[in-house]
Amino acid sequence: MSKQFEFSVNGLPVSVSLDNEETPLLNVLRNELGLMGTRFGCGLEQCGCCMVLIDGVAEKCCTKPIWSILGKQVTTVEGLGSADRPHPLQFAFLEEQAGQCGYCLAGILVSAKALLDKNPSPTRAEIAQALDGNICRCGSHNRIIRAVEKAAAAIRAGAGQ
Amino acid sequence: MSTALPGPLEANPDLDRWVDFPAPGKVTILTGRVELGQGVLTAMAQIAADELDVGMERITIRSGDTEKAPNEGYTAGSQSIQFGGVAMRQACADVRALFLEQAANVLHCPANELSIADGRILRNGSSTGQDYWTLAGAVDLRVKATGTGARKRASDLRTIGSNSARLDLPAKIFGNAVFIHDMRIDGMMHARVVRQPNRGATIGSIDEKAIRRAAKGPVEFVRNGNFLAIIGPDETAVEAAGVAAVNHVAWQNVETPTQAQQEAGWLLQRPVVERVFGAPEAANPQGRQRYEATYTRGYLAHASISPSCGLALYRDGKLTVWTHCQGVYPLRTALAKTLKLDPGSIIVHHVQGSGCYGHNGADDAAADAAIIAMQQPGKPVRVRWRRDEEFIYEPKTPAMVVKVRVLLDEAGKPVDWTQEIWSPTHNLRPGAGGNLLGALALPDPPPEPPPNDVSESNGGGATRNGEPLYDIPAKRILHHLVTEAPVRTSALRGLGAMPNIFAMECCIDDLAARAGQDPVQYRLSITADARARAVIEKVAAMAKWHDAPPAGTGRGRGIAFARYKNRAAYCAVVVELSVEEEIRLHHVWCAADGGLIVNPDGVMNQLEGGIIQSASWVLKEQVRFDNGVASFDWETYPVLKFSEVPEIDIELLNTRDDVPLGVGEVTAGPTAAAIGNAVSHALGTRIRDLPLTRERIMAGLLKD
What residues have CB less than 8 Å from B687, skipping those under 6 apart? Predict the structure, then answer.
């Protein structure tokens, strides 16, 4: 029997009808809501490709059952900004050309957003530590750290949200 | 008149295979090279923009597509710009020349009065009202390239050499659907394969009930011989069924790699094909000093961040396949053989995946989808491997043993160099006779491919960079191509270059120490190649080499050098690190000479990526075997983390040279060896087995 699951994604209320209440939030975002920015990397909560904000906290969602999300606010990379209105992080990632294949970037942007929300002036070491839950296999780490530093400075100076 | 064409253009001489003017103001370029995260499509657009004199924003790229794009084999081996880019450049120059010729006819003027600005034809700098698109109807590009179109002079290059922003990055940063994993086709079925554990394993029993129970949704079984898949409309149900099937399908004739097979040393007693290159073996003359040391490296995984994915649709006798593999044409040939189809009835499209760094599971996942699609006509099928499936079943890069034997002159310089290599093949790509994984489970599986490795004319596999570039009177490679391996082995970034350069450049440091010389000076004393000397001197200056700390203090510096394949880019690396129980990288300096650079920032990104990936291989990575592949996730196969990455400084030399040299894989070998040398400097003892784990460091310290 299918059940309704209500929560919010990127500020908008959604209601999804599913038979299996164990369906991971990742599959709901990608297969039911068509939000492809949040990616499958391992299905084991190890690599961070599926990082989203749940009530403002960065969490991996590849094994998070949909029943645990009821009434919560989910933010995905699509909710950070868009090409027309990029989040300072997205702007800085483009400026630094911070990425190679880019598969890990959405999760990294979300982790970085959670960091900057808590700590607007992180050191290099703090940024690196905050991103240790995300794997980048191409080796774009230093560009990514530079971009987060740059975004933090821009936000402190009053850019964006 | 025609001149020698660049290889890929010679192989695909029709100009309409490279350039098209589909609509007013629009240019399409076609390339056999595919985007793997290395930025190659942006570089191709930069090349075309300069040689066609059009703005980058007018250019659309069609890439990796058996319907139209040129057949350039594989996107591999740091060859995309050095060969594919040079071919694109000449194709565009030929096209531009044809249009100028037509414009001269129309305008009744000599062609040398004409130029092109953003696609518009100018005469002596003034508008003529003509452009590519007004002339396109009269210029037939279904003609052969001649190689006579004049390429731009270095001083006229505008986009080549500029840091054009990557064309593919914005969509990835804004979270758009860009990867093959994001493709959804109406009526699509999700699928997971129940993997045959090894060639010859047969299905004993299938507990369908238990699998369906675990699925909690509708799933169906698709079987052909010992190829078993689970399909259904809901990915969650299909994934759950796929996971459950690992425990609910019983296999017979199962063979698993053992712990004993894990280390490179196991290769020494296996059957081999002997291959010898270079000068005849020297007798050891009396009085010559002799150096000998053995280096090893274990099996590595590509460990792509996304598990492999493939889509296929079989309809009306035509098979369409979407894949993130490195070579759509070779895959098409392999699919035709596996599925007993005419290649002409198969279309293969490249769609981006995550970085692959070589032959990972991409081809196999595409074949899985195709095998299933053939049994489900009219239904689009999407296969996505699991994380453990990727680690266990993707081809590994082989373990290697490299023994270096050197004879020295009175001054301690090498006069005779033998690099003796034991390695399974680095090339089981489908285009090299390797089998698609799913094919082994089908009835009538294909035979084992004959022993083979990448040809030396193509840079070699295990022998890659097995010959030092240094000035040594006699050099040779003894290659024992091991014909038996516990797992499938194939290409990973640089193939044998990393273990060979690690062995060679660690050896050079040992020889320098024996001669009582500084490692930088020693290298300079045995190389006359000006470009090699330049990168070594440059990196030494960047790192302030002569301020290095004394040896044996726990903090160390190391240098290493290589020219990739001895014919692509030159690179020297200095690493500074400290060693306590584990190795901590502090700083890496790199000087590289890749000749003409299309996109300097893109090249920097590749060099940085290669440094970090190599550091990860050297410090952390080895595929473990224990009654099966025991590295199956990110905890059992850890890679370098953000907090473990060193700071990196890179400088590029000679970037306005005439000719580009492949750079994508050049840093891996020198980085590995520079780490090895820095660890030796820090500890005062050398560790010759990779990875440089805590156990090996402790053992190395106790040994002394």
Answer: B676, B679, B680, B696, B697, B700
Regarding whether A89 and A73 lie in a shared domain, the answer is no
Residue B673 in tokens? 């060896």
Q: Do B642 and A129 touch (CB under 8 A)?
A: yes
Residues in chain A with CB shorter than 8 Å from the CB of B176 are: 36-37
Q: Nearest CB to A46: which of B235, B237, B635?
A: B635
Here the tokens at position B277 are 């290159």
Q: Do A128 and B611 touch (CB under 8 A)?
A: no
Residue B285 pLDDT grade (very low, low, confident, very high; cuts 50, 70, 90)? low
Query: Domain containing A60 — which CATH number?
Result: 3.10.20.30
CA–CA separation, B162 vs A97, rounded Å? 14
Q: Using a CB-CB distance cutoff of 8 angstroms, which residues of chain B are in contact with residue A47?
A: 305, 387, 634
Instruction: Report yes or no: A25 at the B interface, CB cutoff 8 Å.
Output: no
User: And the tokens for B291?
Assistant: 């150096």
Q: For the domain covering B400-426+461-703, report its CATH number.
A: 3.30.365.10
Q: Which of B305, B610, B639 sits opposite A41 (nearest CB)?
A: B305
Cβ(A36)–Cβ(A105) under 8 Å?
no
The size of the A-B interface in CB pairs under 8 A is 182
- Tell me, what's the pLDDT at B404? 98
For residue range A32-82, what is the model confidence (pLDDT) as tens digits? 999 999 999 999 999 999 999 999 999 999 999 999 999 999 999 999 999
* Domain shared by A88 and A150, yes or no: yes
Q: Is residue B336 scored above 60 in pLDDT?
A: yes
Query: pTM for the whole thing?
Result: 0.97
Chain A: residue nearest B388 by CA?
A: A42
User: In the predicted model, is pLDDT for residue B382 greater than 60?
Assistant: yes
Q: Which domain holds residue A47?
A: 3-79
Give the model's confidence band at B547: pLDDT under 50 very low, under 70 low, under 90 confident, else very high: confident
The residue-averaged pLDDT of B92-107 equals 97
Assess whether A87 and A51 both reside in one domain.
no
What count of other Cβ atoms lies within 10 Å of the Cβ of residue B272?
18
Instruction: Assess whether A60 and A109 both reside in one domain.
Output: no
Answer whether A137 sits within 8 Å of B633, measured CB to CB: no
Burial (CB < 10 A; 0-12, 13-18, 19+), residue B172, is buried
- Give the A window 40-69 contacts with B, CB below 8 Å: 40-44, 46-47, 49
Smallest Cα distance from A125 to chain B, Å: 7
Binary contact (A36, B217; C-beta < 8 A): no
Co-location of A8 and A27 in the same domain: yes
| Same CATH fold assignment for domains B7-171 and B181-254+302-393 | yes
Among residues A59, A79, A99, the one where a domain terminates is A79
**Is the CB of B236 less than 8 angstroms away from the CB of A20?**
yes
The reply to whether A144 and A100 lie within a common domain is yes
| Per-residue pLDDT at B510 exceeds 50 | yes
CB spacing of B645 vs A144 below 8 angstroms = no
Q: Do B217 and A19 touch (CB under 8 A)?
A: yes
Tell me how crowded residue B8 is: count the other CB atoms within 10 A of its CB. Answer: 27
Shared domain for A25 and A42, answered yes or no, is yes
List the single residue in B with minimal CA-CA distance to A140. B609
The β-bridge partners of B651 are B591
Closest CA to A56 of A69, A68, A72, A40: A72
Please say if the pLDDT value at position B109 is more than 80.
Answer: yes
Q: How far is A94 from chain B (nearest CA, A)?
A: 7
Residue B552, pLDDT score: 80
- CB B614 within 8 Å of CB B498: yes
Which fold, B181-254+302-393? Aldehyde Oxidoreductase; domain 4 (3.30.365)
CATH C-level class of B7-171: alpha beta
Strand order of the sheet with strand A57-60?
A: A12-18, A3-9, A73-75, A51-54, A57-60
Work out the average pLDDT over B76-81: 88
Domain coordinates in residue numbering, chain B? 7-171, 181-254+302-393, 400-426+461-703
CATH number, domain of A120, equals 1.10.150.120
Task: Quote the number of domains for chain A.
Answer: 2
Co-location of A12 and A52 in the same domain: yes
A131: nearest CA partner in chain B: B642
